[in-house]
Design brief:
Layout: H1 2-18, E1 27-32, E2 35-39, E3 44-49, E4 56-57, E5 62-67, H2 69-94, H3 98-130, H4 136-165, H5 169-194, E6 197-199, E7 204-209, E8 216-217, E9 222-227, E10 233-239, E11 251-256, E12 262-273, E13 293-300, H6 303-306, E14 314-317
Antiparallel strand pairs: 1-10, 1-14, 2-9, 3-5, 3-8, 4-7, 5-6, 7-9, 10-13, 11-12, 11-14, 12-13
Helix pairs in contact: 2-5, 3-4
Length: about 325
Amino acid sequence: MKQYILYIAGALTLASCGNNKDTVKPVQGKVERDQVAVVSKIAGRISVLKVQEGDFVHKGDTLAILDIPEVAAKKAQAEGAVTSAEAQYQMTVHGATGNQLKQLQAKKQALKEQYDFAQKSIDRLGAMVKDSLIPQQQYDEVYAKYQGAKAQLIAVDAEIADVQNGVRIEQQTMALGQQDRALGALQEVAVADKERYIIAPQDMRIEGITLKTGELALPGYTLVTGSLLESTYFRFTIPEKQLKIYQTGSTIKVTVPYLDNKSITGTIKQVKQIGAYANIATAYPDYDMQESLYEVIVKPQQPEDAAKLYTKSTVILAP
């Protein structure tokens, strides 16, 4: 009887150990990297594709070149507008040419002779009209010609002054504004011309190319996607009951199965609740349906240790 009771107690003890819910199993996760999408700002056809999937590129490298015929046409229009505006502004600053000034001087000389003659005539007729030797009507006619010659002489003097001193400052300002506007249009075309070149924004590895040579790239359309090697991190899914094991800031070991269980030391950077089933990183996580799931983000302490790992490859987090 004592042996039977001892056998039952041992079996219960083994069963209890086998069903221990506090036993923590290794957690599988995935290698993740930040992704970069390179898009085009203006529409154009792919003229040259300079990279392939899997290539590593540096910041500033040319990924593709677009063919945009409209840019060349707009550039010619903008250059013509700049030339015209610059000439117009220079004309307002420097005034009339030397030949125009000579013409105005000759015109003034002719008007000056008419004015002198009219003044002499009015002087002679003034005494005669007082003595009633001529009618008042004749004197008035000569006086009207005298006033007309005087007004024309004043007008030509004003024209010569404008030529010598330049046009009004308001006209110069308006011409300068037109010149600046034309230069701005030319700069806009220059910027659009630079947008023909699709440039790598950061050091990255090319993950995907969405268009081929000859295809049309629309504004905002993703042409190339890449991953940032320095941004490598590990993502795991754990149940709520394991939160006390994985604390933010703690150091932990991550092993890479496909590299013969290579060990990488990392730091837990973030623990946050998972709100959607699609965000689960661990295959078949061991948890009760009523438990909340949490995402654990681990950053390698030495980024170069994880730089060559394949994205989405499996890693294991030991407790």
